[in-house]
Design goal:
The chain is α/β, with parallel strands linked by helices and 370 residues long. The protein has two domains: 247 residues, no CATH class; 118 residues, no CATH class. It contains twelve helices and 14 strands. Strands 4-3-2-1-5-8-9-10-13 form a nine-stranded mixed beta sheet, with helices on both faces. A three-stranded antiparallel beta sheet has the order 11-12-14. Strand 11 and strand 12 form a beta hairpin. Helix 5 crosses helix 6.
Length: 370
């Protein structure tokens, strides 16, 4: 299942990726269902290709050799459906499962992403600075991380979930979605506008339909890596990352993160400030730190033996048990980012990770260390 919201400045990329899906297409054992939306008059990036049709359509993807034109049959035309609504996402998942029942399900959510942060002002004049996922420029809506989780909960979840949007490879995101899938693929970093790799990992799935969620997740990371290493893909100078996470380990991860946060909140402020200043961050979000890099820096600088031990245990767990596969163009991106703010956003209190651990207490502590 692909939920491709091109009702924004990513319209051209949406059409290109739909054509990439047609390089492989569905077969007797693997069905590729797509909800694709586009519009005219968005803030920027209007594309008039494909006859300049507008609206939201559902497809069963069929294979073709035409890389410039979508030829898959339109199964439903939904008009101006709101792809910024979590209820529309839920409706698409329900429709796909009803029409194409399967032993295993994979879902790719494709659009703008900004990590954990939800919408704070749906009437903002600068629409592309809003926080959330699946920006619909026609309705002015997008859905938050908890709403994404609710859509998946109400429709029974999936085996594999890919968040094909910027900065979604975060502990907060994975924990919110821990019951929604077995494996999750996402990027800590800002993602390029177009990475035509769907044909590669879907081709692997067509060749081996019995593939489990973890193997499929690992293959999505490897094909991403191969694209950038073998085809010279570019992210406009920024390092590129992609990781696959084992969501069944989130309970054990929560316990280790909670223990470390409880100890670290009492740590030497100078050591915490120095670690925050040096730790790898992603995109335009200095508060989105690589978890292993940040905890490793604190571990190296603290004199507290208990905090050192907890830090080593947490980092080891992330690298060996939580992360299935990780690839990055730098050595300090280990697959999972986390919120380490200098100015605490109270909206963080609404996340499951905030409620279930003391990381929110630690994040507040960090925001006081000016």
């Amino acid at each position: 299942m692909y939920f491709i919201n091109g009702k924004n400045n990513l319209e051209s990329s949406a059409l290109m990726d739909m054509n990439a899906l047609e390089q492989v297409g569905s077969n007797g054992k693997v069905k590729i269902a797509v909800e694709l939306g586009r519009m005219n008059g968005q803030y920027e990036g209007d594309d008039h290709a494909e006859g300049d049709w507008t609206g939201v359509r559902r497809y069963l993807v069929t294979k073709d050799a035409d890389s410039a034109r979508i030829t898959s049959p339109i199964l439903q035309d939904l008009g101006r459906a709101d792809m910024g609504s979590w209820k529309e996402l839920a409706a698409f998942i329900k429709w796909s499962k009803a029409n194409f029942p399967a032993r295993r399900y994979a879902l790719v959510l494709w659009d703008h992403g900004n990590g954990w942060e939800p919408v704070s002002d749906s009437n903002s004049g600068d629409f592309y600075n809003l926080k959330g996922f699946s920006l619909d420029d026609e309705t002015g809506h997008e859905f938050s991380l908890p709403q994404m989780a609710e859509a998946l909960r109400l429709t029974g979840g999936v085996d594999f979930l890919m968040l094909d949007g910027c900065n979604m490879g975060m502990a907060e995101v994975a924990y919110e979605l821990k019951d929604a899938a077995l494996a999750l693929t996402a990027s800590e970093e800002t993602e390029p506008g177009v990475v035509v790799r769907y044909a590669q990992f879907l081709g692997m799935l067509n060749a081996k339909p019995s593939m489990g969620a973890e193997e499929f997740a690992a293959n999505t990371v490897r094909t991403y890596r191969d694209y950038f290493l073998g085809q010279g893909g570019d992210n406009e100078g920024a390092p590129v990352t992609q990781s696959a996470l084992r969501l069944g380990e989130m309970k054990a991860f929560r316990a280790r993160l909670d223990a470390w946060a409880a100890a670290a909140v009492q740590a030497d402020p100078a050591a915490l400030r120095a670690a925050a200043a040096r730790a790898k961050f992603f995109g335009e979000y200095p508060a989105y730190k690589d978890l292993c890099d940040f905890v490793g820096l604190v571990t190296a600088s603290t004199a507290d033996p208990a905090l050192k031990a907890l830090g080593r245990d947490l980092v080891s767990f992330v690298k060996t048990r939580l992360v299935i596969e990780n690839w990055a163009q730098d050595a300090v991106s280990h697959g999972v980012a986390i919120y380490v703010p200098s100015d605490y956003n109270p909206l963080y209190d609404g996340l499951s990770l905030s409620r279930d651990t003391r990381w929110d207490d630690f994040a507040r502590r960090m925001s006081t260390l000016k």
